[in-house]
Amino acid sequence: MNRERGLLAASVISVQNSCFVYPACEKCFSRLVLDSRRFNCLKCGCTGDVKDASCRYRLSLKIADTNDLFDITVFGSCLDPFFGVTAENLQRYIQDLNQLSGETSADTSLGVLVQAVEACFIGKRFIFGV
C-alpha cells in the first residue's frame, strides 16, 4: 500500500451523508458506543460517563479533480472554521434548538444544517491533504 502523502486540488461534487458530528474517543478518535449512561470505545477500551463524551467532525465528500472522482472523509478540528464552532458546541446547539422548539425528532434542524453544509462546500474548490 502506498503511504505517500500529497496535496490534491479538487472541487466538491456532493456531501455523502448528513452525519457531520460523532461521539469520539479522546485517546484514539474512534466512534464511541453510547448507552443511556456510559460510553465505551471498542478500539482502545476507554470508558466513561456519556456526559463526558467528546464530539468530533466527520465530513464525507465526493470530490473531483480534472481527471478523477474521489470519495474522501475530512475529520476533526480542521472543520471548525467552516462550521464556526467546535463539533461539541455544534452538537450542543442542535440539542438546545430541538429542546427550545419542542421538536421530538432532529429532522428539521438536521435538514437546515445539511442545506448549509451543501451551500458551503458543493461547487467549491479546496486543497486536500491525502
Automatic annotation (TrEMBL):
Name its GO BP terms in alphabetical order.
negative regulation of intrinsic apoptotic signaling pathway in response to DNA damage
Can you quote a single GO CC term?
nucleus
Q: Which residues form the Replication factor A C-terminal domain?
A: 9-95
Which domain of life does the protein's organism represent?
Answer: Eukaryota
One Pfam family in the UniProt entry: Rep_fac-A_C
Q: Which PANTHER family match?
A: DNA DAMAGE-INDUCED APOPTOSIS SUPPRESSOR PROTEIN, DNA DAMAGE-INDUCIBLE APOPTOSIS SUPPRESSOR PROTEIN DDIAS
Which protein is depicted? DDIAS protein
Per the UniProt record, the source organism is Trogon melanurus (Black-tailed trogon)
Taxonomic placement:
Eukaryota, Metazoa, Chordata, Craniata, Vertebrata
